[in-house]
Amino acid sequence: MTVHHYIGSPYELPTGSFGTKETLVPLPEVSLFNRNQKKDKPITIYEKEEDAYGIRINRLTDGYSDIKRVFTLPYIYELSCDAHSKSMRELFTYIEEQLIEGCYIELYSCLDGDEAEEKDSSLDTSINLKTLYFGKHYQLDKKKYIYELGEMFTFEDKQFVVVVK
């Protein structure tokens, strides 16, 4: 089943892809079988596997508006984010860059079709980027907290996460 991730904000966030390092190359340059094509259709290539990992923020699709009831914030977006540590680092880099001090962002994940179901409050957690606490008991390192979050954080089904700055 497909898991969907969402991000809520008190203000509008930039949308698009963040953290990937891709190159568009005409197809005939990378494929011997397409050298005679008249249209040079570009394809996306990545130099290294890590370059393919990042995040994508999209406006909320109409069919998923039930998810709004989980959030306390007015701007809700769909978040595409792989379970890879590089994608998680990109997510927290994006949040660090976009989040205004004194504000918070909310994250939520659920299976496709479960948007109208109740969240699992026992999974609620917080990440404080000012005090560098992940949950109540784990203090992050001041110099490498983005790296640590990338290594430790995973999305749980029906988990609600508040990230404060």
How would you portray this structure in words?
With 165 residues, the chain is α+β, with helices and mostly antiparallel strands. It contains 3 helices and 11 strands; from the N terminus they run E-E-E-H-E-E-E-H-E-E-E-E-H-E. It has helices at residues 27-30, 85-98, 145-152; strands at 3-9, 16-18, 23-26, 42-45, 55-59, 75-81, 104-111, 125-128, 133-134, 138-139, 160-164. Strands 2-5-6-1-7-11-8-9-10 form a 9-stranded mixed beta sheet, with helices on one face. A hairpin with a 4-residue loop joins strand 8 (125-128) and strand 9. Helix 2 packs across helix 3. The longest helix is centred in the middle third of the chain and has 14 residues, at 85-98.
Short précis:
The chain is of the alpha+beta class. 16% of the residues lie in helices and 31% in strands. The strands form 2 sheets. A 9-stranded mixed sheet has the order 2-5-6-1-7-11-8-9-10, with helices on one face.
